[in-house]
Amino acid sequence: MLKPNRNFKLGLAASGKMMTLVALAVVVAWAALDAAGRELAFLDPKTLSAYGYFRADYARASDKGSFLRGYRLRLVEHGGGYTPALVDAFLCERLQHAPRPEAIAIADFYVVKAAGREGIRIMHLPAPAPARERIVGLVLSRISSYEAQDAMRAFILMEEVRGEQELFKSNIILRDGNTKPDWETWWRHDGIPRARRAFEVWWKREEPWPQKERRDPLSGTGLEATSL
């Protein structure tokens, strides 16, 4: 039986190394093209290609909260901060069935976007009512973890979900129209606790959601949500 000579063996080894280098080059080139395509797509987050990258990245992300925070910053850079319609529809669908950690991440995303940049799906979650109840319950349970401005947006978001309408550029103010000299301090030390207590009382009422959503949680508190 003929045995391969030394030159033949060296040729096979060199050929194998060359194929490995070619494969690595292809992988590197593909990664570079993918990164370039990703950056180009995100110049306009509303496009189908941008949505495709979002879905792929979302599926791979083990920490949905961290991923959505990063995505939110991209939207500020390239989309005016507004939530694209396709992403809005996807996140609202996930919100209805996702495990609690993922649902919290989505709820936090919508809190920061509330009052004008959240999209329209969150205000029109489909029946049955548990979809709307879930987002309100998640957000209310997170109030203490939010900074003062995000706490404001959280109350606004719950009001948008309850009333099924956008509260554009909204704020929570005193009903009597009095302006506090230091509104931020007032809101942090008086407004947030007062609004939170009111929402918790409203939330704990033993009645079906269709009845609950018709009640104004801020009624009798001296506070009201305003909108332009």
How would you describe what is shown here?
The chain has 228 residues and is mostly helical. It has a domain at 26-169. It is built from nine helices and two strands; from the N terminus they run αααααααβααβ. The protein has helices spanning 6-41, 48-60, 64-78, 85-97, 100-113, 130-141, 148-163, 183-203, 209-212, and strands at residues 171-174, 223-226. The chain has a two-stranded antiparallel ribbon. It is globular and about 75 Å long. Residues 25-33 have low confidence and may be disordered.
Task: Map the helices and strands.
Layout: H1 6-41, H2 48-60, H3 64-78, H4 85-97, H5 100-113, H6 130-141, H7 148-163, E1 171-174, H8 183-203, H9 209-212, E2 223-226
Instruction: Tally the beta strands.
Output: 2
Strand order across the biggest sheet?
1-2
N- and C-termini, Cα separation: 91 Å
Overall form: globular
Q: Structural class of the helix and strand makeup?
A: mainly alpha
Give a short account of the largest sheet.
2 strands, antiparallel
Percentage of residues assigned to helices: 55-70%
The tally of helices reads 9
The SSE string, one letter per element, is: HHHHHHHEHHE
Strand content: under 5%
Global mean pLDDT = 80
Uncertain segments are 25-33
